[in-house]
Design goal:
The chain is mainly beta. It has one domain. Strands 1-2-6-5-4-34 form a six-stranded antiparallel β-sheet. Strands 3, 29, 30, 31, 32 and 33 form a six-stranded antiparallel β-sheet that branches. The longest helix has 9 residues. It is globular, with a radius of gyration of 21 Å. The two termini are 20 Å apart. Keywords: Iron, Metal-binding, Oxidoreductase. It holds the Pfam family RPE65. Its cofactor is Fe(2+). Belongs to the carotenoid oxygenase family. This is Carotenoid oxygenase family protein.
């Protein structure tokens, strides 16, 4: 059964921009769908909701469109009692509401010069907060977040309706970056943001009830552009990495990002409730890190597993009018482990694997605790950023296993979905959204986490394609049952 909530009467003019075409074509409908066709069998011990955030541009872009500009759209697939339903909604940000009223785009995008005559968000205060990047389940609500720091928009985990936002400024904080993290063992949200004016970074903790429990500025030598943080049981790892703006151009309101080869990568280990003067900085070779795998404590050491980018700034543009855009979105990350010794101050780096993978996820119940397994996406040989496979790492055995989606089939960041009453780290399923460009349709796919190479246990056919997007999470049924009266 299909219920169309809203449908656009126009199609965007891509102007040849590959991030508005094919797999990246914005969705034109908000729908709810039940009684979906299933190829295979839905596991009876899988209960929860898969959520995936991503861009779906609503109005014709103002200037050159960047993949990161698109209006945030949440896609949700609910699994319960062997049945599956799907829905999608635009996150009703302040910026999108204003553009809907104006019936056109108002804000220039990431690679355009900011319009300082209008309110803006992001680290430089000039972007529209599209809330299109990450999603976590916190305090019974979904939090939809923006990669360049913005509001914390709250959504209903089942309906995906935007219900409000966390009043960070009212509590004495500022904004939060997309890759803020929920510790499922404590219920806390650990967050940071960054900006082009001092303080160049702030760090904080929201208590499980949503109240601000801790907040402090972090002393940095200048404006920086970090993307993520990581947590252990007792510490948070913040990053000061040498990919950031040209500071002289920044003074003229030109946001030109450069890789500063002469500077080290710095990792700041701070107690979860520590202030800036308690941070311990560790220096390593210059690099850039978009996403971490996990972190934990081993004796005197902090272990940090990441996807390390080896060429943070492209050496040359690619051919065509969008060659520079395409070049910056081509990255070469591999699995790397850092060790930071809190007693000696020593930092070590170790390559774990040499294949290019990104968007790593682990069983969320083990974030901040030692993990053995992680699940990453593999990159397709394509002009734009597309994911053609899922790669599972067994870091203790030093092995990988892999499943490939198939010809002209591309996936999303997966999520680990624990089996009901699961007993071990990889006792569960890996779930994701896949677009079949041959059939022009979307699918929700379920894999046995312990045997992903056998292919999907079930493929749920969706009534529309799902545009390529960013980050995802799994909202377990047992948590939803505790926090939602209608679950």
């Amino acid at each position: 059964m299909l219920n169309v909530i809203s449908e656009l009467s126009r199609v965007l003019d891509s102007k040849g921009n590959p991030y508005l075409e094919d797999m990246h074509t914005p969705a034109s409908r908000e729908i709810e769908a039940t009684e979906l066709e299933v190829i295979g069998e839905i596991p009876k011990d899988l209960t929860g909701v898969y959520l995936r955030n991503g861009p779906s541009q609503r109005w014709q872009p103002k200037g050159v469109y960047h993949w990161f500009d698109g209006d945030g759209m949440m896609h949700g697939v609910e699994v319960r009692d062997g049945k599956v339903s799907y829905r999608n909604r635009w996150t009703q940000t302040l910026g999108l509401k204003q553009e809907n009223e104006a019936q056109h785009s108002i804000w220039p995008g990431l690679i355009e010069r900011p319009d300082r005559s209008i309110q803006g968000w992001g680290s430089n205060g000039g972007l529209k907060d599209s809330s299109n990047t990450d999603v976590v389940l916190f305090n019974g609500k979904l939090l939809s977040m923006f990669y360049q720091c913005g509001e914390a928009y709250q959504l209903d985990p089942r309906t995906l309706e935007t219900t409000g936002k966390i009043d960070l400024k009212g509590m004495g904080a500022r904004t939060l970056s997309a890759h803020s993290m929920v510790d499922e063992n404590t219920g806390e949200l650990i967050f940071f943001d960054y900006g082009t004016t001092a303080p160049y970074m702030t760090y904080g903790v929201l208590a499980p009830n949503g109240e601000l429990a801790h907040f402090t500025p972090i002393d940095l030598p200048g404006p920086r552009l970090p993307h993520t943080l990581s947590i252990t049981e007792n510490y948070t790892i913040l990053m000061d990495l040498p990919l950031f703006w040209n500071e002289e151009l920044l003074k003229r309101d030109v946001q030109k990002v450069e890789f500063h080869h002469e500077l080290p990568s710095r990792f700041g280990v701070i107690p979860r409730y520590g202030n800036s003067d308690a941070i311990r900085w560790f220096e390593c070779d210059p690099t850039y890190i978009y996403h971490m795998v996990n972190a934990w404590e081993e004796g005197d050491e902090i272990i940090l597993d990441v996807c390390k980018t080896h060429t943070p700034e492209p050496t040359k543009s690619l051919p065509g009018p969008y060659g520079n855009l395409l070049a910056w979105l081509k990255i070469d990350p591999t699995y790397v482990r850092y060790r930071f010794n809190l007693r000696t101050g020593e930092a070590k780096e170790e390559a774990m694997h040499d294949i290019f993978t990104e968007f790593p996820v682990v069983n969320g119940r083990y974030y901040g605790r030692k993990t053995r397994f992680s699940y990453h996406v593999g990159f397709a040989d394509a002009p734009t950023t597309l994911f053609d496979s899922i790669v599972k790492y067994d870091i203790e055995q030093g092995t990988t296993s892999k499943t490939v989606f198939g010809d002209h089939r591309y996936g999303s960041e997966p999520a680990f979905a624990p089996r009901d009453n699961s007993q071990s780290e990889d006792d569960g399923y890996v779930v994701t959204l896949v677009n079949d460009l041959n059939e022009k349709r979307g699918e929700f796919q379920i894999y046995d986490a312990q045997n992903i190479e056998q292919g999907p246990l079930a493929r749920v056919i969706l009534p529309q394609p799902v545009p390529s997007g960013f980050h995802a999470c799994w909202a377990p049924g047992d948590i939803l049952q505790k926090t939602m009266a209608d679950w």
